[in-house]
Amino acid sequence: MRAGTGGEPHSDAGGKPDSAVVRDALGVGVAVGLSGFAFGVTSAGGGLTLLQTCALSLLVFTGASQFALVGALAAGGNPLTAAAGAFFLGVRNTFYGLRLSQLLALPRAVRPFAAQWVIDETTAVTLAQPTRRAARIGFTVTGLTLYLLWNLTTLLGALGAKAIGDTDAWGLDAAGPAVFLALLAPMLRTTIERAVGALAVLLGLGLLPVLPAGVPVLAAALAAPIALYIAGRRQTGTRNDAQEEDR
Questions:
Q1: Residue 138 and residue 28: Cα distance in Å, rounded?
Q2: Mean pLDDT, to the nearest integer, of 183-210?
Q3: Is the pTM of this model over 0.90?
Q4: What is the torsional sign of CA 54, 112, 129, 11?
Q5: Exposed / middle / buried, residue 169 (Cβ in 10 Å: 0-12, 13-18, 19+)
Q6: Residue 6: pLDDT band with limits 50, 70, 90
Q7: Which of 49, 52, 114, 240 sits at a 20 to 30 Å CA gap from 16?
Q8: How many CB atoms lie within 10 A of CB 208?
């Protein structure tokens, strides 16, 4: 470890102070963790018991899938169909895990426990870090803060479901997606990255009315290969034109 500017400790060249990583991670963890209150209220209002509601947050711990499940059940959907929709929505975490496993390079004994924290917010914070040390700190602090707060606020929301009333009027369930978008936006620096983001939005929203819950999110992943294919074709065409001019 070496001292950075102003005495701030760094571990790797080009990294940022550990305190800055912790501060950013805590900000995300607290902001999103508090929205667990909305899930607790929604789940209890949808007919799930206190134990069922808390078990979902403890064991599933992926907000979008949890909201999808309780939303489908509250609307009178079949439990198996609701579970399938939540499952498909949570599959994206598998792809996050493939990337984070290489970036974090955690010991094998730790990986099964770390997998529980592979979600949108921990992935966004981790990928935003410049070094492996910072990525590990960001992942750990975000995951721990978010897991503790999400489960605590889930409990409080389920207990206070009758007092809060209509959760849609409060809009608390939008806190998680809003924070994730705020983290993602600064990472879209190049034209191809912005094109992938825009195409993913179009695919996700366009397929939402015609596909089961969770499937549009998976379909939106096709934006990356489509955009890269188009960009590759353009580069090939540009090279061919340049070669023709040289002749």
A1: 10
A2: 80
A3: no
A4: positive
A5: exposed
A6: very low
A7: 114
A8: 14
